[in-house]
Amino acid sequence: MFIGHYAPAFAAATLRKAPSLAVLVVAVQVLDFAFFSFALLDIEHYRMVPGFTASNWLDLYDMRYSHSLLGAAVFGALFGGLVLAFTRSRAAAGIAFACVLSHWLADYIVHAPDLTLAGSPPKLGLGLWNHPLAEHALEVLLAFGTLALYARRTRAAGPRSDLVLYFFAGMMGTFQMIDWLGPRTTDVNASQPLLALFAFTVLALLALLVQSTRAKGTS
């Protein structure tokens, strides 16, 4: 899952006590920020295996730190702690923690069994990636449905607010289409983690722009 991970961020950003949209957009991708950084540092590992799943070739065989449930909870606690330090709001910190943890739960639905509870077997995952039409539909509905919810529950705060929101949605769609339709290779090299980190960073920066053009909800 890629853009589907952002659904909890968009939904949570409508809550009065939630941290900002950009913070939540980072929160839901903290685990992938960690994984691809660890891959660059040779701490965690993946390989590209033709036909590994019907949706992609990713064999994520070593994600013991970033994608164990325990690791997700630790990253969530650390991120929530940062939010608490800056906002002095336990509610905001709790929402941020939940958004970090949501990543593991969403991955559990789509991944082939490669997730763990604490870094060692059993390997977990329901494997929706092996049913690409269902997985793609779920991803699109989650991402754009909750973005529409965010748009409805916030108020445009400038003449270009809707344009900024549409551009953000377009970039999400563009990155997702690259992920689905881009060329596949069995080579494992630094360009893959760097491209993923680039996409996550661009979307976080665009979320910062989006939030600057909208008034926060009051629910």
Q: Could you write a compact summary of the structure shown?
A:
This protein is mainly α. It is built from 8 helices and 4 strands, in the order αααββαααβααβ.
Task: Give an overview in words.
- 40% of the residues are buried.
- It is globular, with a radius of gyration of 17 Å.
- By secondary structure, it is mainly alpha-helical.
- The chain has helices at residues 7-12, 21-27, 30-40, 69-87, 90-110, 132-153, 161-181, 191-212, and strands at 45-48, 58-62, 155-156, 214-215.
- The strands form 2 sheets. A two-stranded antiparallel sheet has the order 1-2. It has a two-stranded antiparallel ribbon with strand order 3-4.
- The protein has 8 helices and 4 strands, in the order H-H-H-E-E-H-H-H-E-H-H-E.
User: Which percent range fits the helix content?
Assistant: 55-70%
Strand residue content: 5-15%
End-to-end span in angstroms? 28 Å
| Major sheet: arrangement of strands | 1-2
Oligomer: single chain
Give the low-pLDDT segments.
none
Mean pLDDT: 96
Structural class: mainly alpha
Number of strands: 4
Largest sheet: 2 strands, antiparallel
Using the CA coordinates, give the radius of gyration.
17 Å
Order of helices and strands: HHHEEHHHEHHE
Shape descriptor reads globular
Number of helices: 8
